[in-house]
């Protein structure tokens, strides 16, 4: 006969085993399955075999600490190279890096042509804190963020600067292409104090609520972007503040697909951003994507886009346009307070189908 007390003992020791405060070390893919049963994990440096990803599906409350650099064998496949999921996770890179081996893949065509590239490189589906990680040479897009509870990404470095140069396969174009820094489709995300050097959007918000992007520096890419917005999505409660944007195509952009319907972009607040050397548009709000300043769609309603103190200051190169706004008829609504925006250089751009901008003229 088994007593009730001994059954309870078995159950509780089982729970202890699967939920244990044990420590584990990962030094190869072979270690992962057992290590993820522990809530304290050290991630040593190693090379992940070609054609495989490192995927950490973690118990709630796990802390992972990097103790070396992770690189990936070279092979043309879909990726992702790294995936992390779990709730209340702390991932500390300790300044170590993930090396995506970009030069092996880069051909100037990004993710829409040429060789198949692992994309995205880093898939973050956790909540908690992901910090102090360096990512170099992503084959395509870098971070895809799709958490389901609050997530802080802080102190990250994305260095794809090597992709600025052409290579033997890129026909004179920059070899790196479509190397978005952060693609966000999630609620309650803060990305802060990070440095991004790439060849596409520094940040692209595709959907979500309560998204903060602050104190980051964006170099060489296409700027800080909401979109491209597709059908049936909402973006709201976005704060873009204190970022430094250097030598990008745009500083700040909202782009919506001309074919999109049933979507909303609202309550976006910009403050204290500084942009210099902007090559195409200081501010571009355009409802005609994939065209630029083409025939705008009317299926995405944009409202409440404001520049608050401290002033956002943007300087564009000669030949660039300061501000261009291309709305579908009645698709941009309300009054937008732009009294804390200054844009210099270049020439004035067109403002189409909207007269609700207050406190700013170009
Ligand atoms: C992948 O290829 C790149 C460039 O060709 C090279 O720098 C890197 O060392 C290679 N990675 C591995 C793990 O062999
Ligand atoms: C706008 O977004 C901010 C930041 O997420 C939020 O605090 C504020 O409540 C929102 N305002 C409205 C009217 O929803
Ligand atoms: C815009 O904001 C400024 C500064 O925050 C304020 O002084 C001004 O009254 C606002 N304008 C409108 C039309 O709300």
UniProtKB/TrEMBL annotation:
<dbReference type="GO" id="GO:0045490">
    <property type="term" value="P:pectin catabolic process"/>
</dbReference>
<dbReference type="InterPro" id="IPR000743">
    <property type="entry name" value="Glyco_hydro_28"/>
</dbReference>
<keyword id="KW-0732">Signal</keyword>
<keyword id="KW-0961">Cell wall biogenesis/degradation</keyword>
<dbReference type="InterPro" id="IPR006626">
    <property type="entry name" value="PbH1"/>
</dbReference>
<keyword id="KW-1015">Disulfide bond</keyword>
<dbReference type="InterPro" id="IPR011050">
    <property type="entry name" value="Pectin_lyase_fold/virulence"/>
</dbReference>
<feature type="signal peptide">
    <location>
        <begin position="1"/>
        <end position="20"/>
    </location>
</feature>
<keyword id="KW-0378">Hydrolase</keyword>
<keyword id="KW-0326">Glycosidase</keyword>
<keyword id="KW-0677">Repeat</keyword>
<protein>
    <recommendedName>
        <fullName>endo-polygalacturonase</fullName>
        <ecNumber>3.2.1.15</ecNumber>
    </recommendedName>
</protein>
<comment type="similarity">
    <text>Belongs to the glycosyl hydrolase 28 family.</text>
</comment>
<dbReference type="Pfam" id="PF00295">
    <property type="entry name" value="Glyco_hydro_28"/>
</dbReference>
<feature type="compositionally biased region" description="Polar residues">
    <location>
        <begin position="157"/>
        <end position="171"/>
    </location>
</feature>
<dbReference type="InterPro" id="IPR012334">
    <property type="entry name" value="Pectin_lyas_fold"/>
</dbReference>
<dbReference type="InterPro" id="IPR050434">
    <property type="entry name" value="Glycosyl_hydrlase_28"/>
</dbReference>
<dbReference type="GO" id="GO:0004650">
    <property type="term" value="F:polygalacturonase activity"/>
</dbReference>
<feature type="active site">
    <location>
        <position position="222"/>
    </location>
</feature>
<feature type="region of interest" description="Disordered">
    <location>
        <begin position="157"/>
        <end position="181"/>
    </location>
</feature>
<dbReference type="GO" id="GO:0071555">
    <property type="term" value="P:cell wall organization"/>
</dbReference>
<dbReference type="GO" id="GO:0005576">
    <property type="term" value="C:extracellular region"/>
</dbReference>
